[in-house]
Every structure is written in structure tokens, then in C-alpha cells.
Amino acid sequence: MRQAPKEPPADAGFQIAPMIDVVFVIMLFFMVMAGAVKVEHELKTTLPGNAETAQETEMPDEVTIGVSESGQVTINEDPVGSPQDKDLTGLFNEMKKIAEAARQSKTKLLVTVQAEETAKYERVVNVLDMLALAEVSNVTFAVADVE
User: For residue range 127-144, what is the model confidence (pLDDT) as tens digits?
Assistant: First the structure.
């Protein structure tokens, strides 16, 4: 006898149980993650504006002295003298004027010596000597950025 071919099983339809499982897993994920969210707190800050002061505010004079690899000395990127100038009289004269102007206006003079990495130490020492002769005492150092 011949057997009849097997028929494919009937379509079970839309299964709701797996969908409910997925929804519960997603809901559980969001519930757990909601507890991990950092709460932002209000910072009590004020924006900068015009402030009234009882005393006059001192604004420091800032001067940058550059020393290049070739020995060129600059004040605020303006060349002073030549790279071969050993006594740096131009630097001395300019710094004497700036220091005297700062004293007369009763402001603080801030000088930053910014030497290139390959500048000669002797040249930097010459600059410091001229600053000492010009009676400039507030000196800091910086290294020029490599481009």
C-alpha cells in the first residue's frame, strides 16, 4: 500500500508568549539602567559681569621676551638689536622704560622669557643679566611651542 504524503503541520499562528518574554526583558533592562543614570544637580553660579570694588584693581603689565635659536631677542615679538649683539643695550633700554612706566602707574610688571628649545644658554643668561640691570625682578620662563 501506498502511504499518503505527509502534510506540513498547520500554521500555529502568532505566538504571544515569546513576545511577552522579550517585552519583559526590555522593560527589566530599562528599569536597571534608570538607576544608573547620574542625576544632574543645579550649580549655583553667577555669570561674569561688572563688579564694584572698594579699591582700585591692579592689572599687571605682561611682557614676553623671546630668544630664538639664532640668538635674536624679541620683546612681544618685536626684534630688539641684532643676534650678534652681545651687550643687548636695546633690550636694556626698552626694559628700563617698561619697568619705569610700571612703577609710575603702580602696576606689577610680569616678564616671561620664552626661549626656543635649541637657543644657547649663554644668550638666555645675557637676557637675564639685562633684566637684572633694568631692575626687573618678576621673571618667569616658558618653552616655545614646537610647530
Answer: 888 888 888 888 888 875
